[in-house]
Amino acid sequence: MMPVYMIQAGKDGPIKIGWSRNPNGRGRLSQLQTAHYEELRIVRIIEESIEGVLHRYFGANLIRGEWFHFSPEMLTVTVAELMSLSKRGALPPHPLSDIRKANARWGGQKSGNNRNGRTVLRGGEMVAR
Predict the structure, then answer these.
(1) What global pTM score does this model have?
(2) What digits encode the pLDDT tens for the residues 87-108?
(3) Facing residues of 120 across strands?
(4) Collapsing DSSP states into helix, strand and coil, what is residue 31?
């Protein structure tokens, strides 16, 4: 089982939701801090492998990749609540599911973002965000 972390940029900045065997110390926090201009801090660690469930639950807050606009609910929602919604099929689709479908259509090619914030498939097609 991989712990899921929520790392926040600054005092009220965006949250990265990801997983790591070692989210603090010399682990993921340290790796991310090297490339980030704001101070990062871990605001929550969940000892369950529910990264995808969290991405779906907070999908409306998605900024890009695994970064989300902060919501106070990120600090309070319980694993039991999330799993109940997941089992009932009550979670929205993953916020990146359209991009993943497009990638599958192009033979699993990876995507990236251009300077205009559009997702570009490495086959040349652009998908507006």
Answers:
(1) 0.71
(2) 999 998 887 766 555 555 555 5
(3) 112, 126
(4) helix
Range(s) of the domain holding residue 40 = 4-87
Exposed, middle or buried: residue 107 (CB in 10 Å: 0-12, 13-18, 19+)?
A: exposed
Same domain for 37 and 78?
yes
State whether 44 and 18 are in the same domain.
Answer: yes
Distance CA 88, CA 124 (A): 38
Residue ranges of the chain with pLDDT lower than 50? 109-111, 120-129
Give the pLDDT of residue 29: 80
Domain presence at residue 92: no
Residues 11 and 46 in one domain: yes
Number of domains in the chain: 2
Q: Which residues pair with 41 in a beta bridge?
A: 8
